[in-house]
Amino acid sequence: MRNILVTGGAGYIGSVLVPLLLNRGYNVRVLDNLMYGGRALLPCFAHKEFEFMRGDVRKIEDLRTAIEGMDAIYHLAAIVGFPACKKFPKLAEEVNQESTILLEGLRHDRPMFYASTGSNYGAIVGDVCTEETPLNPLTIYGTTKTEAEKYLLNRGNVVAYRYATAFGVAPRLRLDLLINDFAYQAVKNRNLIIYEKTFKRTFIHVRDIAKSLVYALENFNTMRDEVYNVGSNDMNFSKEDVALMIKRRIEYYLHFAEIGKDEDQRNYEVTYEKINKAGFQTTISIDEGIDELLKVMDVIDVVNEYSNV
Ligand SMILES: NC(=O)c1ccc[n+]([C@@H]2O[C@H](COP(=O)([O-])OP(=O)(O)OC[C@H]3O[C@@H](n4cnc5c(N)ncnc54)[C@H](O)[C@@H]3O)[C@@H](O)[C@H]2O)c1
C-alpha cells in the first residue's frame, strides 16, 4: 500500500498525519474542502509525492476522483466536536454519517482507517470503558460518529480507532479541545472557570494519534476488522487535574464553580489494553503537551481562527 488518500487531511490530525506519511515514503493525496483554510498543509506541497484535491466528501463525484489509484483510505473528514455539530446539525449528519456511507460504497477492497471517538461512550460513571461497553453518545457529534463507525465495522476491511480527546500543537491548531483550551485561557486571559471539575476525560497527544494511524496501516492484516480505544491508561484525568497541571507551570486565576453546568457532559474512563496488546503505545505525556502549548500561545493572536465552531 503506497498510495494513500486522506480525507480531511488539512485538519488538526491530518496536518500531523500527512507529513508523517510523506516522510515514511508514502504517496499522499488529501481531499479536503478547506473549511478552516489550507495553510497547515503548505510545507507538504514541497513533496513531489503530495497531491491536494479541493473537494467535498458529500459529493460522490469528488469521492470517485479522489479514490482513483489509491490503495488505502484514512477517513478523517468530519464536522468535529459537539459545539460545531450542535451549530450545524444537518451538515454534521451529511458529512459525518452520509459521506462515510458514500465513500464505503466506492472503496471496494481498499482498506479503510476510520477516526472514531471516545465520545461514543458518553457519560459512563463507575466503570472503565472497554471496546465492548455499550455506546451511549450524548451529542449529535457522538451519534453521527457512532453510526458511521457501526456501518464501517459491519462492512469490514477496516480499522476503527476510538480516540481519546486530542491535545498538543499541530500546524492547524484547534483550541476547542479541553487541554488546548485550558492552556489558551490560562495564558491569554489569565483566568479559567471550571464547571464539574470532577468529570473525567481521557487524552492523547495529536502526534501519537498520527503515529497510531500509521501503525494501523503498517499492521493492517493483524489489526483489521476491529475497533480499538486509542489513548493511554496513564492519561485518564479530571478537569481539575488538568487545570492544576497548568497552574503548576504558570500563575493564573483558577475558579472551580459549584453552581453551573458544562454543556459538554462527557464523563468517562477508558482502558487501552487492546491497542497495547496490538503493539501500540503512546509516547507523549500531558505534561509534555502542556509545556509545548504554553510555549506556542505567545504566537497566537486570534482565537476564532482556530475555533471549530
Ligand atoms: N481531535 C480529536 O480529539 C479527535 C478525537 C477523536 C476523533 N477525532 C476524529 O478525527 C477526525 C479529524 O479530526 P480533527 O481534530 O483533525 O478535526 P478538524 O476539524 O481539524 O479536521 C476536519 C477536516 O475535515 C475537513 N472537512 C470537513 N467537512 C468536509 C467536507 N464536507 N469535505 C471535505 N473535507 C471536509 C475540514 O476542512 C478539516 O480539514 C474527525 O473524524 C474526528 O471525528 C478527533
TrEMBL record:
Organism: candidate division LCP-89 bacterium B3_LCP
Residue intervals of the NAD-dependent epimerase/dehydratase domain: 4-231
CDD domains for the chain: SDR_e
Pfam families with a match to the protein in the record: Epimerase
Protein name from the UniProt record: Epimerase
Protein origin, superkingdom: Bacteria
Biological classification of the source: Bacteria, Pseudomonadati, Bacteria division LCP-89
Gene3D superfamilies named among the record's database cross-references: NAD(P)-binding Rossmann-like Domain
